[in-house]
Design a protein that fits this description.
Elements: E1 4-13, E2 22-30, E3 34-38, H1 45-52, E4 60-65, E5 68-69, H2 78-82, E6 85-88, H3 100-111, H4 115-128, H5 144-156, E7 162-166, H6 174-189, E8 193-197, H7 201-206, E9 211-215, E10 218-222
Parallel strand pairs: 3-8, 3-9, 6-7, 7-8
Antiparallel strand pairs: 1-2, 1-4, 4-5, 9-10
Helix pairs in contact: 3-4, 3-5, 5-6
């Protein structure tokens, strides 16, 4: 029987009294899957990601995470579920008064890992993402790409069951982007379900994973090698 990390059933989302930004979105992501999330600006990508990492609740429909209906999760149980999710935000959300090491270590410290293990794992990962010379640097002294590398390291340091990333390579050159994609792929091979929102078509062509595409709030899932601009595509429902 297939295990799903998340399931959406006829989900709609609106903010206040505005029009729906997500409309009748239905899909299920198997554990260990890898998907790109694409769509024009304003199509609803960030809103969909926010449902995946529990920053929002759906206006209608049902969202399940790790087999639990989100709307039914008790407030006291939310921290445990959130610890299973790694998030890379487009605006980094680093703490300016903390070093790269301490920003990255935050999820481990919250989870109660021994300091000895933290001091071993965190520098190793930061060196892997190209920040070996900036371990003690604070965010105001780092470039946009370096800040993004810290944010990614923080998101993956505790090997989450679900990784959600919003334009994770948007501030990076092609070489750095490819290195970080290899990190995501390695994490995926170890069982993490990965969803990456991106506008980078070159990235999608280079790495063969299916595409979740949003257009005016509606979702279509395309298999590897297909894209929204190919008119001969079948209905997206065939691939959900």
């Amino acid at each position: 029987m297939t295990e799903y990390v998340t399931e959406f059933d006829a989900v709609g989302l609106r903010y206040g009294q505005g029009t729906e930004v997500l409309k009748d979105v239905s899909f299920a992501l198997p554990a260990g899957s890898f998907h790109f999330l694409t769509g024009e600006s304003g199509a609803g990508k960030t809103s969909l990601l926010s449902l995946l990492y529990l920053a929002q609740s759906p206006t209608r429909g049902c969202v399940k995470l790790f087999g639990k209906v989100v709307q039914n999760i008790a407030r006291d149980d939310l921290p445990e579920i959130r610890r299973k999710i790694g998030v890379v935000f487009q605006d980094f959300r680093l703490l300016d008064h903390l070093s790269a090491v301490d920003n990255t270590a935050l999820p481990l410290r919250v989870a109660g890992y021994p300091e000895e293990e933290i001091q071993k794992r965190v520098p190793e990962l930061l060196m892997w993402v190209g920040l070996g010379a900036h371990l003690n640097a604070k965010p105001p002294t780092l470039s946009g790409g370096q800040k993004q590398s810290v944010a990614i390291a923080r998101a993956v340091i505790n090997r989450p069951q679900l990784l959600v990333a919003d334009e994770p390579t948007g501030n990076m050159d092609d070489k750095s982007a490819a290195r970080l994609m290899r990190l995501f792929i390695e994490l995926n091979k170890r069982g993490t379900t990965v969803v990456i929102a991106t506008h980078n078509e070159g990235l999608i062509r280079t790495f063969p994973y299916p595409r979740m595409h949003l257009s005016k709030g509606r979702l279509t899932i395309y298999p590897v090698g297909y894209s929204p601009d190919q008119a001969y595509l079948k209905s997206g429902n065939d691939y959900v």
